[in-house]
Specification:
Distance between the termini: 53 Å
Radius of gyration: 18 Å
Strand order of the largest sheet: 1-2
Structural class: mainly alpha
Length: 193
C-alpha cells in the first residue's frame, strides 16, 4: 500500500468510526478501514506486513475461522504507514477522555472495563424497555447515554466475537463481558408485553 492510499484516513479523522480501540473488527471491516480489498489484507497478514490480528486460539471456533483485529491496532498500523505515531494506549486514553465517553480511574484497563460495563448495563435496560440510566463522568457530572448513541455502539458490539476463556485473552482486548442482571420485579407495569 502506498502512503497516499492511507494518508486520507488521517487527513479526515471523522472517517474512522468512534468505537473503543480495544473492540475487535473483522477482516473485511479492517480492509475497508484501510481502503484495500480483504484479499490484500490477507496477503499482508500472511507475509507479516499488515496489522497484527488477534490470535485465533483466544476466540471461540466458528465456521470458517474468521480473522479479527483490534480496532486500535489497525489505526496504529495505518498511522505508522504515513509516518505518524498513534499508540494503542494513546488511543484508549483519547477515547476515554472525550466528553461522551469519560470515566474516572487511574489505569486504562480499569476505564475500559468501566465503559464496557456501563454500555452493557444500559444496553440491557433498553432491551428490557426500561430506557438507559447514566454513568458518572469526571467529577460529579452525570452523562446520559442517549438511545441513539447506544444503538450506534451496538452495531459494532453485536458483531464482536466471543472469547473461549475471557480470563486468558490478550491484555486490553475486548469487549469485556459482564453478566448483567437487572431486577425486574415490581417493574412489570412498564415492561413491554
Amino acid at each position: 500500500m502506498s502512503r497516499n492510499s492511507v494518508a486520507h484516513l488521517f487527513k479526515e479523522p471523522a472517517k474512522w468510526p468512534i468505537i473503543p480501540p480495544w473492540w475487535l473488527v473483522s477482516a473485511p471491516q479492517a480492509a475497508a478501514l484501510v481502503n484495500v480489498k480483504p484479499a490484500t489484507l490477507q496477503s499482508w497478514r500472511i507475509r507479516g506486513e499488515g496489522p497484527d490480528p488477534v490470535p485465533p486460539m483466544y476466540l471461540h471456533p466458528t465456521q470458517g475461522n474468521p480473522v479479527y483485529f483490534r480496532y486500535g491496532d489497525i489505526r496504529e498500523w495505518a498511522a505508522s504507514r504515513v509516518g505518524l505515531l498513534f499508540p494503542f494506549e494513546d488511543q484508549c486514553l483519547h477515547f476515554l477522555s472525550t466528553p461522551s465517553n469519560s470515566l474516572t480511574g487511574s489505569c486504562t484497563e480499569k476505564m475500559a472495563r468501566g465503559f464496557d460495563y456501563t454500555f452493557q448495563f444500559d444496553r440491557k435496560r433498553v432491551q428490557l424497555g426500561l430506557g438507559p440510566l447514566f454513568f458518572v463522568g469526571s467529577g460529579a457530572e452525570a452523562i446520559v447515554w442517549e438511545e441513539e448513541l447506544l444503538g450506534y455502539f451496538d452495531t459494532y458490539y453485536a458483531r464482536q466475537p466471543r472469547f473461549r476463556n475471557p480470563d486468558a485473552k490478550p491484555p486490553l482486548c475486548g469487549p469485556f463481558e459482564y453478566e448483567i442482571d437487572i431486577p425486574i420485579e415490581g417493574l412489570e407495569h412498564i415492561l413491554p408485553a
